[in-house]
Predict the 3D structure of the following.
Amino acid sequence: MRDLTKGSEGKHILLFAIPMLIGNLFQALYNTVDSIWVGQIVGSNGLAAVAVSFPIIFMLISFVMGFTMGVTIIISQYYGAKDLENVKRTINNTFLMLLLASFITTLAGILLSRRLLILIDTPPVILENADVYLKIMFMGMLFMYGYNGLSAILRGMGDSKTPLYFLIVATFVNIILDPIFIYVLKLGVAGAAYATVISQGVSFIMGFFYLYKRYEMFKIKYNQLKFDKDIILLIFKIGFPMAIQQTLVSVAGVFLNAIINRFGADAMAAFGAASRVESFIFMPTMSIALSVSSFTGQNLGAGRIDRVKRGFKAAMVMGFILSIFTIFITQFIPRYLILMFTKNKVVVELGVQYLKVLGLFYCFFTFMFIANGVIRGAGDTFVAMLITLVGLWFVRIPLANILSKRIGLVGVWYAIGIGFLVGMTLSLSYYFSGRWKNKGIIKSEI
């Protein structure tokens, strides 16, 4: 566990972010390996089936995952204030909520997957594969929720390394199982889903038993497993806006997919391949932003706003350096990255176009996420939700719909980038207003 309330702000943020970055890279590799095997063995239609499925999975799990992000904020502030009793209460209630949520999400996902695919105009040629992939993935929700819940708790306590170890194990299990299920056993898209679910199960089970044996904080006693009204209300207060925010993002992804689907399976496959590349590009920024949230939470809990401000400045310098590197990748080597997924010339050209256009806007995404990291870490999650609402639903989706009809698929790419620009403007404006400073839960309770 790491105390983020003492020592160099920039060093803390960087060292805390690095394990999360490595973990996120492994998570992206985890998903990308599926796409590479499916794209090369099953073909572009299989790749499109996986691509069209992801936003639906994200939509149905994002509400709960928003709550786990809220848990990180709550635990980080309690941990910064050295209130270990409330840390323990929060852990117990988190596990109870995730157990209930996984059951509901699995049932809903299995029952609604095909209807949702039809609702977003999924091309008939990929409908069956997408439906099979979705149903299998939803059967593993308990493992997905469980691992992410453990990670959220540990991040709040300043530990970003332990979740990485179990994710690395899961990634290698997935890399081994993918060719066996997809190629050897001829299961195709379903094989990729089975490999992912089994790998997530290994990661969660190993993580849970390791922490149970090693840390008293994780020794959950069955007679203590009951819903605590005060903690549940606090989790809802902090987590509900984040849950709504995550849901807004995921539903926007589904609507964006519906717009792209109008251009056919090749367009969807290109978007899927480019999105996988993009997930790697976003990883450093997202890791720094998550690090900033935990850093902000602990320091607000300890009453150190001065450290939060210095941490923000250090993170913005890191973000600027990342942006320069990102521009180089997207403008000079995008073709080689898309070719990892498919040799279909049409898909490759569309994927390259996506990366070249969006590459010019990724710096706005970076600065937006870092500012939002402070806002979320302070517990001001309602404002972060509003910023997301405006950027996605008042800018990206309407603009994508309009521009796609006027200038074609490239209009969708520009709409995404303009959404980043608007989001950054709103996030930085709110940060510099200073209103987030009095949102800490420790202060509100005193």
About this structure: Residues 112 and 135 are 9 Å apart (CA to CA).
